[in-house]
Amino acid sequence: MTSERREGAPLKRERIREHLLDLIDSLDVGATIPSERQLCETLGVSRPTVRSAVDGLVRDGFLVRRHGAGMFVAEPKIVQELGPDNSARLAPGTVGGAWSTRTLEFTRTSAGARIGRRLRVSPADPVLHITRLRLVDAAPVAVDALCVPARLVPGLQPGDLQQHSFYELLADRYGIEVDTAEQSIEPTVTDEEESALLLVPVHSPALLFERVTEDAEGTVVEFTRSVYRGDRYRILTRLRLADRGLCRSDTSGGALSGEWSATDRYLAQD
């Protein structure tokens, strides 16, 4: 029996993964890592075991494969922590690197039925439609479509949003303090226009954020739809499980409605 079989493939893959993560930490973005063959020789393991570990690191966004060129250290993901203590300022685009904004579209038009419902205004009311490209360290990471009731922001210009955050402008220029927001996050894929702007293939994995923000009086001040590159963005949530009674009383997933079930392989509440 070989040493690899005695140790077990899962343990071997984990050891290779840790070795590669240490190597990645010591290299710059875009640096080449050893080939699978070289890793097999260095670590004394089989090619399928190395490939399985590397596949996991590619899938998790630590490495990128380029056909015919090899494997390279990937750009680090932007991490945003979500939680009940985070303010509205912690919207996507406020964490993880040097952010900048490029205004692509700035138009004034009637709200229409769909946007009117989101903003709680008449379909005939004027709104500003603002499309922005969000960049981190000069690399595009998101396409951001912002809709604002025009009456709230008289005199707003396209360049304003490239110099200041929207919430800063609301507070400093218009005296509007954002108070609450409802935000949804779901997986999606990029369409042709989004792909061209984000420099990714069509139908690349992405995260879709939709956000409705209100001021202290309950007036809706924005509806935002943002598409973030799935290979560059990660959401982190910290959960407090200190209420032992709550943990014991509900093993069905708790925060979500519907029927939950578990098998001996997969636990729904994980």
Would you give an account of this structure?
It is a single chain. 29% of the residues lie in helices and 32% in strands. The protein has 270 residues and is of the alpha+beta class. A 6-stranded antiparallel β-sheet has the order 5-6-7-10-9-8. It has a 3-stranded antiparallel β-sheet with strand order 1-3-2. A hairpin with a 4-residue loop joins strand 9 (205-215) and strand 10. Helix 3 packs across helix 4. InterPro entries: Bact_HTH_transcr_reg (IPR050679), Chorismate_lyase_/UTRA_dom_sf (IPR028978), Tscrpt_reg_HTH_GntR (IPR000524), UTRA (IPR011663), WH-like_DNA-bd_sf (IPR036388), WH_DNA-bd_sf (IPR036390).
Give a short overview.
This protein has 270 residues and is an alpha+beta fold.
Number of helices: 9
Please summarize the sheet with the most strands.
6 strands, antiparallel
Content of β-strand: 25-35%
Q: Could you name the ranges where pLDDT drops below 50 across 5 or more consecutive residues?
A: 1-6, 85-91, 261-270
Please tell me what the overall shape is.
Answer: elongated
Radius of gyration: 23 Å
Total E-strand runs = 11
Order of helices and strands: HHEHHEEEEHEEHHEHEEEH
What is the typical, i.e. mean, pLDDT? 81
Strand order of the largest sheet: 5-6-7-10-9-8
* Helix/sheet category: alpha+beta
Rounded to the nearest angstrom, the distance between the terminal CA atoms is: 36 Å
Helix content: 25-40%
GO molecular function, one term: DNA binding
Domain HTH gntR-type: 6-76
Keywords: DNA-binding, Transcription, Transcription regulation
Protein name: GntR family transcriptional regulator
